[in-house]
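hey so u asked for the seq, here:
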Amino acid sequence: MAAALALLIKLLPLYVTVALGWIAGRYLEASGKHIAGIMLYIVTPSVVFSGVMAAPLTPQVILLPALVFGFCTVIALLHLAVARRVLTDGSASVIPLSVGTGNTGYFGIPVALLLFGEQGLAIYIVCMLGTTLFENSVGFYLAARGRYSIRDALVRVARLPSVYAFAAAVALNLSGVSIPGAFVPLFDNLRGAYSILGMMIIGMGILSFRGLAGNPMFTGLAFFGKFVSWPLLALAFWWLDAHLLGIYDLAVHQAIFLISITPIAANTVVIATLLDAAPRQAAGTTLLSTLFALGFIPVMIAWVFGA
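ran it, structure tokens below
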């Protein structure tokens, strides 16, 4: 109970930031679309680059983002197939982003630091890169396909800098190159901006209470994929690896499980806003999932981790 209460207190600033974003959008006419562009093309690639540069890269560690990326893709494609059958309002293309990834950065990093400490946080961040790569490749492509041709969607994916930031950081890290000391404070500040702006843009997308739930079918499918399918897949891998494969230790299993129970990613709103793909629906469902996670995450952690 004490651990759950400490976690709740740790999460409260995130909700205050969402409220500040709503105030900025409602009363200051702040443009969520402009901030979305800054996040996607400047801040997120910078965070990916600095995170990979700081990670101790080994073949086993490098495989972790690929493993998480594969999990995200499987969840996304399965639920997209369902969404295309039940959603007729043009929002089906946003489902893969809603269920495949999660708010692993803005939301997950503070939780991981609280649960795992600095050493466990490094493992979590490496795993988290798999969700970032999914968002900026397969997830973006599937969302863009709702409005663009295959060629145009692929061109838009090719323009996303996060994929190139990841590849460049891996190459430099393996070559023994590190970030110059003069630039370390810059990347630290960009990580702070990543968290603050990412949560605020959720609030900016909500300008009326009526827009929170939107299409109940969309919200229900997104919640099922994010809070049922993803955790079940993570637990299945945990059991399989612990009892049969023996590839990873407990810290990795816990990191992947934490990724699976984070709420819908704020970057879903960022990408939906940029593509004009049901942005209000994405923002409302993302906010509802974030509110739901306030109670869901402590309960799941207490149950699975024995906190």
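DSSP finds twelve helices and no strands in the chain. Residues 108-144 form the longest helix (37 residues).
lmk if thats what u needed
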